[in-house]
Each structure stands twice: as C-alpha cells, then as structure tokens.
Design goal:
Helix content is about 70%, strand content about 0%. It has a domain of about 210 residues. The protein is built from 15 helices and no strands. With about 425 residues, the chain is an all-alpha fold. It is globular, with a radius of gyration of 22 Å. It is found in: Membrane. It is a multi-pass membrane protein. GO terms for molecular function: ligase activity. It comes from Oceanospirillum sediminis. This is O-antigen ligase family protein.
Length: about 425
C-alpha cells in the first residue's frame, strides 16, 4: 500500500513538473516541491535505502557542486539570498532519494515531457504568429523558454526507443514525435539560436544510440526530416528564423569591422574580451559577483572595454562566467558536474531499449546544457537551475529501475 502511494506521488509530481514547466509561472516548482518534501520523510530511514556506488556518486556530484557555490558566497562575502538558485542542487538530493525509493511510472515521465513540449510549442506559435511578438518567451526569459522547449523536444526523441516497446507503441510514438516537433517549434519561434549550435552533436548522439535498433535508413530519414524542418522555418518569413541567423554575420561585421559591440553577438564578444583580461589576476577562486562588477567598471573607465556591457551582471557563457566568478575551482566543479553525470548515464548506452532511452536522455540533458551554456549562463536563472538537477534525478531513478527490472530484481529491493 505504501509502495503504491509513494509511486503515485512520484509519478504525479514528475508529470506536473514536466507538463507545467513552461506554460505556467514557475510551473516547474510545484512538482519539485512535492518531491523534495516527500524525500525529507526518508531521511530518518536513509540507512535502510540500498544505494549503490553510482547512486552515491550522483549524490556526491550534486552535493559537491552546491558546496562550490556555497564557498563562492562565503569567500566573496555575498548575501545569503545568493544561495537561492544554488540551493536547487542540494534540495534535489532528498527528491532523488524519494524517486529511487518510489520510482515514477515511466509513462508519467514521457507523457509529461511530451505534453509540456506540445503546450509550449502551441503557446510559442500563438505568441509569435497570432500576437506578433518578436520572440516568444512564455512566462520566462526568451532564451530560457526556447532552449528548455528545445531540450524537452530532444528528450522526447530519446524516448521513442521506450515508446517502441510499449503495447500502445503507435500512440506513444506519435505523442513523442509531436513533442519533438513542438519542442523544436518553441525554440524556433523564440529565436534562441544559441541552442541551435549543438544540433549536429545531438543528432550524432541519437544516431549512435538508435541506429542499431531502428536501422540506419530510418535514422537517416529522421535526420533529414529535422534538417527539412529547419529549412522550412528558414523559408517562412513569419518565423523570424532567417532573420535571426542573418543577424549573426551582421553582428560580427559590426563588431570586427566597425568596432561596434551594440548587438547580441557583439556584446557577448566584448564581455568575453574583458573576462580574459581579469582571469589571470584571480585565477584560483575568481572575483565573485561584486568583485567582477567593480573590476569591469575599472576596465570601462580605462577604456579597455566598451561601456555598452556595463548593465549586464553575468558573462553570457556558463564556463567563462564560472571561471571569472569562481576561478579554476568553480570551472572544475562545473565540468565535474557535467562530465560526471554524463559518465554515469553513458554506461547504459548499449543496454536494452528501455534502459538505453533513459541513458541517452541523460547524456542529451548534459549535452544540451553544455550547448546552451555557450551563449547563456543557464544556471543563473531559476528555470535552468531547477530543470537540470531534477530532470537528471528523474532520469536516473527510471534508469536504475529499468536495470533492476531487466535483471529480475523488483523495486522494493531498494529498501531493507
């Protein structure tokens, strides 16, 4: 009875988290809060949980990254409120324990993901085409909206392997394909072109994971379909895709030939130019936010960088931002988080179809965040800081459950 109730709680929470993530204000918070609070009930009995070395490794990666962010706040004398977003990496640990103890029903995860992507795509279409906004943004920042929508579509693509094993495989496959298309539409209508940089690598991961299961011809056809979708969006003026891509070359010309950084690309290049000047001055622990802003102001006053970047509080690159704010220690912690989680999931890339779906989705989650981080500090936004650790926890719990099911071990074996 308790097992069934726990699984229902985790299943509904996962579905709510994913389906509402982009279509209600802070939609991702509701499911996350229930998972966290439910996980707290397990802490007095944590010694009874059967956690293997990989489970502990994931917990350690999340906890260590939080400690690095905590050290940043302490060392640079920042206010306690700066721990708000970093706290997600700590708060997810009880949620992970609850998900491992009571794994959600797989259909609630994939269904929530697909519905979330579909509803985001519909909303992006309405904002862009019907309301005539320049870039669809939902309730959040435009880049966050477009990139998380794209990520949800990418994860739906990874789930098709799971769908193909279900009794209602036709319905599940069509639902996830719709999620892929609408997730892509969210990205295109938001004009979040930074996310498009990683598309070739995403397609490569999907091809390597599923060419053996679905056949090379089908995978080639899927890749061609993605390219055709992008070309179609390029050809339709109302999508704004062609304009967004053309702006890149215009921005580069403006920056390098006219020495004018007043563009999306130019401002980023000017920020990064300033960053590389100050990194050697405090390489180990970085400048912290206040120290960075003060040093940036000095560079502006010395006319070493353009004053146009003065209003921006981060460097629009996750890795450069970590290096400047938290030094080599901070950058190493970020890389360890990404590469460590990718390594945990990659061990299942050759497993049975269900396990492979979760493993591939886990790798793609990391890959997409690395991609998004090239032009945006994704963890500086609530949506980015909560989506990564909680979705990683969901995928890991489902992956571990599929391993046990394939080996004939029932889920209750996670508890003594």
């Amino acid at each position: 009875m308790l097992n069934r109730l726990g699984c229902h709680i985790s299943s509904v929470s996962v579905f709510v988290f994913l389906s509402l993530a982009l279509v209600t204000k802070s939609g991702y918070s509701y499911g996350a809060a229930v998972l966290f609070l439910s996980g707290l009930t397990l802490l007095p009995r944590i010694h009874r949980l059967r956690l293997d070395a990989r489970d502990l490794s994931l917990i350690a990666l999340l906890g260590f990254y939080f400690l690095i962010l905590l050290a940043d706040v302490v060392l640079h004398d920042m206010p306690v409120r700066e721990l708000d977003r970093p706290s997600r990496f700590l708060l997810v640990i009880p949620a992970l324990l609850f998900l491992l103890r009571y794994p959600p029903i797989a259909g609630f995860f994939w269904g929530g993901l697909a519905f979330g992507a579909i509803m985001a795509g519909i909303w992006a279409f309405d904002q862009k085409i019907n309301q005539g906004v320049l870039r669809a943004s939902g309730f959040t920042h435009t880049i966050q909206f477009g990139n998380i929508g794209m990520l949800m579509g990418v994860l739906c693509a990874a789930g098709i392997s799971w769908a193909w094993q279900q009794k209602l495989r036709g319905i599940w496959t069509l639902l996830l394909i719709a999620g892929v298309i609408m997730g892509a539409m969210t990205s295109l209508f938001s004009g979040s072109r930074g996310g498009w940089i990683g598309i070739p690598f995403i397609l490569l991961v999907l091809y390597q994971a599923y060419a053996g299961q679905f056949g090379k011809k089908l995978m080639y056809g899927a890749i061609v379909s993605v390219i055709a979708l992008f070309i179609l969006a390029w050809m339709i003026p109302s999508t704004g895709v062609k304009q967004r891509v053309n702006h890149v070359s215009q921005d580069l010309q403006l920056y390098f030939e006219d020495n004018n950084p007043n563009s999306s690309v130019g401002l980023r290049l000017e920020m990064w130019k300033g960053a590389w000047q100050i990194v050697p001055e405090r390489p180990l622990f970085g400048w912290g936010e206040n120290g960075y802003h003060e040093r940036k102001q000095q560079l502006i006053e010395d006319q070493q960088i353009n004053p146009a970047i003065e209003p921006y509080d981060h460097l629009h690159n996750e890795f450069i931002n970590a290096l400047v704010m938290r030094g080599v220690i901070g950058l190493a912690g970020l890389l360890l988080l990404y590469l460590g989680i990718a390594r945990l999931f990659s061990s299942g890339k050759n497993g049975p179809p269900e396990s492979r779906a979760y493993a591939t989705a886990g790798v793609l989650l990391v890959l997409c965040y690395i991609d998004f981080g090239l032009t945006q500090v994704f963890f500086n936004h609530n949506s980015g800081a909560i989506f990564f650790p909680f979705v990683a926890a969901m995928l890991w719990a489902l992956y571990r459950q599929s391993e046990k099911r394939n080996s004939g071990v029932i889920g209750s074996a996670l508890y003594r």
